[in-house]
Amino acid sequence: MVIVKRKELSFSEKLYLPEVLRGLSITFRKMFEPKITRQYPEEALETTEVTRGQPRLVVKADNTIACVSCGLCEAACPAYAITIDGGETDRAIEREPVRFDIDMLRCILCGFCEEACPKDAIFMSDELELADYSREALIYDMDKLKRPIAALQHRIDYVKRINDRWQTPSST
Amino acid sequence: MITWLEEHGWMEILVWIVKIGLIFGGLISAGALMTLAERKFSAWMQYRIGPNRVGPWGLLQPLADGVKFIFKESLSPAGANKTLFRFAPVLAALPAFLTIAVIPFSHDVILGGHNFGPIAIANIDVGVLYILSIGGLSVYGIILGGWASNSKYSLMGGLRASAQMISYELTLILTILAVIALSGTLNLQEISAGQKTIGEWNVWSQPFGFVLFVIAMFAETNRHPFDFAECEAELVAGFHTEYSAMKFALFFLGEYSAMVVISCLATVLFLGGPSVPFLPEAHWLLGFGAFMAKTSIFLFLFIWVRWTLPRFRFDQLMRLGWKVALPLALLNLLVTGTFVSLNLNLYSWLRSLV
After folding, report:
1. How far apart are CA A106 and CA B276, in angstroms?
2. pTM to 2 decimals?
């Protein structure tokens, strides 16, 4: 057991008023210091490449998506947010999704889909705002998920850089 | 009635109605603006911006709050004493509205050669007594609200508040008594008229009484550091825990109006009311502005202290009230009384010593 002795107040402290005035002078000075409030809707949040926002499908420069509907992201998703139906295509990759839905109400923004994807087709964007008037509207289909590659490039570069860092020379 | 009308004339009655509208409307809007000022200043002291969404700089926030209060559901607890529960907020707000009547806000208003008298609803010879007796009723609103709610938090808040207000009322009255001894009148208009120049302000002859008055004034309005009526950390919200909607708003309005009134009283008693520093013969409008400015200083002090100091412990509050403030106020009165009865002027006495 530790017995902490209470500090005896000095005479000026017992008078209260000098200490009160000291406290008042502090709060008065603080009134004029810069404010730290962020006016959120007007002042957007700062996002960096590390920001893990909502997942988006990459649309490549030739206007096609890289996804081959392998279903790895669907399997990796811990929240069962992704639903994929695969179909055939004449393109060299032979398969593409006919349906790619992400239920944004289920999505926990964990980024497992991004890690699981073997074709670099899905990446976490820096889009964070999610609001709508119905649950149905928050199940995003392919059209809503598609983003041009330029919009996601800084995240793609970041993920590649991080992955390269752990790769040993023998495995490459 | 008819003879009374003939005696006073329509003009005088119209002037009265205008004055009543002006002062009463001013009091209500000042109370409403105080809620905004409280939030703004507290925000600035905490590096925040404060309400700024409704109107420019959030100026319409009190209006939005008022509309919200009107549309809120008015709850009342199952075991509450319904009559007293409804009556308490009225009783809490009423004293502040009544006491504003005797505060003189300016010198005689002279418009187009007519003298309309000072901006004050009533000029009664026992103005100070009137304020103290009506103001003393506000404790009933709080303790009735606490008791009628049938809730332990409310009751505790009400009891604490009443004990505190009764203890500090003594200090308040004794300091006011010292001022009365100096000015020799209970009429607030005469008290303020007796402090024409800045050198005659009672704060210089009663510096000690002024400090005690300010301390007692904080306790009387249940403001930090003496807000035992509310005590958020211990009693949820104190006496108004069970109140909602307009009943709660009335308690709020009453609290802020009481602050406005007691600030006005402090201005009249100690800061010379409408006297403008270094301009003894100033225009009445300037005097009115000076009164408002002095009152605003007190009102700002209320907010400033609230967001600076922690709350006292209840035994500390009682010790300060009974063992420190009351003896000091008595001593102050004794010294003042001695000077007055010996017909000494402290200022000239000090001058003669030098």
Report:
1. 68
2. 0.79
Q: What are phi and psi of A56, to 5 degrees?
A: -135, 150
Determine the average pLDDT of the residues in B262-268.
91
State residue A97 phi and psi, 5-degree precision.
-75, 135
CA–CA min distance A1, chain B (Å): 26
User: Angle of helix B152-183 relative to helix B245-270, nearest 10 degrees?
Assistant: 20
Write out pLDDT tens, residues A89-137: 888 888 889 999 999 999 999 989 998 988 889 999 988 888 889 999 9
CA B116 to chain centroid: 26
pLDDT confidence of residue B13: 81
Residue B276 carries which DSSP code?
A: B
Collect all residues of chain A within an 8 Å Cβ-Cβ radius of residue B309: 20, 23
CA–CA gap between residue B298 and residue B293 (Å, rounded): 9
Label residues B27-52 b or e (16+ Cβ within 10 Å = b). Answer: bbebbbbbbbbbbbbbbbbeeeebbe
Question: Is B147 within 8 Å of B134 (Cβ atoms)?
Answer: no
Task: Please answer yes or no on whether A27 and B45 come within 8 Å at the CB atom.
Answer: yes
With CB atoms and an 8 Å threshold, state whether B308 touches A26: yes
Better-scored residue on pLDDT, B351 or A38: A38
> How far apart are the C-alpha atoms of B183 and B202, rounded to whole Å?
9
Interface pTM, i.e. ipTM: 0.74
Domains of chain A, with CATH numbers? 55-166 (3.30.70.3270)
Q: Do A37 and B45 touch (CB under 8 A)?
A: no
On the question of pLDDT at B10 being above 80, the answer is no
Cβ pairs bridging A and B (under 8 Å): 37
Q: In the predicted model, is pLDDT for residue B344 greater than 70?
A: no
Separation of alpha carbons B173 and B130, rounded Å: 12
- Output the six-digit token pair for B246: 């307009």
Contact between A31 and B45 under an 8 Å Cβ cutoff? The reply is yes
| Confidence category of residue B349, pLDDT binned at 50, 70, 90 | low
pLDDT range class, residue A170, cuts 50, 70, 90? low
| Residue-wise burial string across A60-99, b where 16 or more C-beta atoms lie within 10 A, e elsewhere | eeeeebbbbbbebbbebbeeebbbbebeeeeeeeeebbee
Tokens read off for B123: 């000029």
Query: Which DSSP letter does residue B231 get?
Result: -
Residues of A with Cβ-Cβ distance to B49 under 8 angstroms = 35, 37, 39
User: What is the band of B149 on the pLDDT scale with cuts at 50, 70, 90?
Assistant: confident
Q: Work out the minimum CA distance from A42 to partner chain B, whole angstroms.
A: 12
Q: How far is CA A165 from CA A110, A122, A156, B318, in A?
A: 21, 20, 14, 68
CA B332/CA A171 separation, integer angstroms:
90
